[in-house]
Structures are given as C-alpha cells and as structure tokens.
C-alpha cells in the first residue's frame, strides 16, 4: 500500500480533500506502507514531532501506533484517495475523465495545452454534461453564436428568447463540440498550460464566465479548481 498524504489537522485546508478516520483498524491499515520505508518513517516522525518531541526516540512500531492514535483523534488528517469510487463526487470526476479523455487528447495537442484544461473547461461549462445545452445539444463548452454564423460542425441552434438572432450551438457529440471550441475560442488559449491563466484568458478575451454581460468574480478560481481536480485523477485507471 502506498503512503497516504497525512498532515497535522491545523495544516489541512478546510475542504473535502481530507477526511477524518475514526476506526483504529482503518488508521493502522493506512500506515502499513510506512513499515520498512526509512524515508517515509522519517517524514512521518517530522509530522508527529510538531506535538510530540520524543517521537524520534521511538522505534517504528511505537511511532506508527502514535500516528494511528492521532489519526483517530483527528490530530492528523488523511487526504482522500482521488481514485476511489465510493464517493459520488469522486465518481463524477472519474466517469467524466473515462468518458471523454480519449476524444480530448488530439484537441489538447492541437491547442498545445493540457488534457485537464480542456476536460475541466467542458466539465465546468456543462456541469458535467448535466446542463440543458449539453443534454439537448451536446454543447459542452458553452459555445454561442448567431443564426447566420454557424460554428464548425454545428447541426442546429437553441435560440435565445431575448435575442432570436443569437443562441447556443448544437453538436452531434462531444468531440465535434470540442473541435468547434478548438477552432474558435480555443485559439485564444493556444500554448497556455497554466490553469489560472487559461481560465483568465477565456474570461477576459473569450467572454466566458459572464453574467448579464459582466464578468463573474469567481469564474477563474472556480474553473481552476475543477481543472485541478481533473488533473489529480488523470492517472486513475
């Protein structure tokens, strides 16, 4: 078993990336990978030393027992496994990657950006494929246009009731939608791999993340977080 990322509770972000472990057997199982790994044990002792100065005098057995106790007490927190499928939110990310990763590879390569940037943008703009424009028109990138300027691969348009000359493009599938993005707004982020800059360019120059024609203050931060969550799960099988 690989070593989980364990941190003192006061060093952990107050979000859902860390979990409290209340069962002693679970805590001990998480720590088994430390046995026989001198580097990992030293790192664990450094964490324990923030509250227990004697920890470097303990043998491995005692140090692991102390760590297990602190985990159960909530003094040490364990990062959740990004590849586990019990959590609904985690499954949503994993299923998204599994479903669209293959179709994203060439698009990302053509734009000289990362797979996680493209997958993250599509997930964010379409609410993981649950938005009305995604379910009815396979528009997973929030691509709008006018009646007389169809986008590449577009098969229809969902018109805006407030402005009947404007609407959201409809596509036959995800890949066509992704290619339409790449050939249009995607040109703005060509060569950009850093998530926050990627998101900022799309908002400032591509008019993404607008509400009543005003920039949404949290757009860059929120999109960047989704991209990060995609990135840490790309290696999951």
Protein architecture, described:
The protein has helices at residues 24-31, 38-48, 60-73, 88-110, 115-126, 132-137, 174-183, 195-204, 219-231; strands at residues 6-8, 18-19, 76-79, 144-146, 156-159, 166-170, 210-211, 214-215. By secondary structure, it is mainly alpha-helical. It has 2 domains: 6-79, no CATH class; 88-231, Lysozyme, CATH 1.10.530.10. The longest helix is centred in the middle third of the chain and has 23 residues, at 88-110. The relative contact order is 0.11. The mean pLDDT is 91.
Short description:
This protein has nine helices and eight strands.
User: What would the average pLDDT be, to the nearest integer?
Assistant: 91
Give the assembly state of these chains.
Answer: single chain
If classified by CATH, what would the architecture of the largest domain be?
Orthogonal Bundle
Query: Which percent bin holds the helix content?
Result: 40-55%
* Shape summary: elongated
Radius of gyration: 23 Å
Spatially, the strands of the biggest sheet line up as: 1-3-2
Task: Summarize this structure as a short list of keywords or feature phrases.
three-stranded antiparallel beta sheet; 237 residues; 11% strand; 2 domains; mainly alpha; Lysozyme; 45% helix
């Amino acid at each position: 078993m690989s070593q989980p990322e364990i941190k003192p509770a006061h060093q952990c972000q107050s979000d859902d990336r860390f979990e409290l472990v209340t069962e002693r057997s679970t805590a001990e199982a998480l720590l088994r990978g430390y046995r026989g790994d001198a580097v990992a044990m030293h790192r664990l002792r450094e964490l324990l030393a923030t509250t227990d100065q004697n920890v470097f005098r303990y043998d491995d057995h005692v140090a692991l027992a102390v760590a297990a106790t602190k985990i159960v007490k909530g003094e040490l927190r364990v990062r959740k496994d990004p590849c586990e499928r019990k959590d609904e939110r985690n499954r949503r990310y994993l299923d998204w990657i599994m479903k669209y990763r293959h179709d994203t590879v060439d698009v990302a390569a053509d734009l000289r950006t990362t797979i996680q940037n493209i997958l993250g943008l599509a997930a964010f703009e379409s609410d993981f494929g649950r938005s009305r424009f995604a379910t009815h028109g396979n528009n997973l990138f929030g691509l709008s246009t006018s009646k007389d300027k169809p986008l590449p691969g577009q098969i229809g348009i969902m018109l805006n009731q407030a402005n009947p000359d404007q609407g959201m493009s409809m596509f036959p599938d995800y890949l066509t939608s992704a290619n339409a993005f790449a050939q249009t707004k995607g040109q703005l982020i060509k060569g950009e791999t850093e998530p926050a800059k990627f998101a900022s360019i799309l908002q400032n120059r591509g008019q993404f993340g607008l509400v009543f024609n005003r920039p949404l203050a949290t757009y860059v931060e929120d999109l960047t977080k989704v991209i990060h969550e995609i990135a840490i799960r790309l290696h999951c099988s």
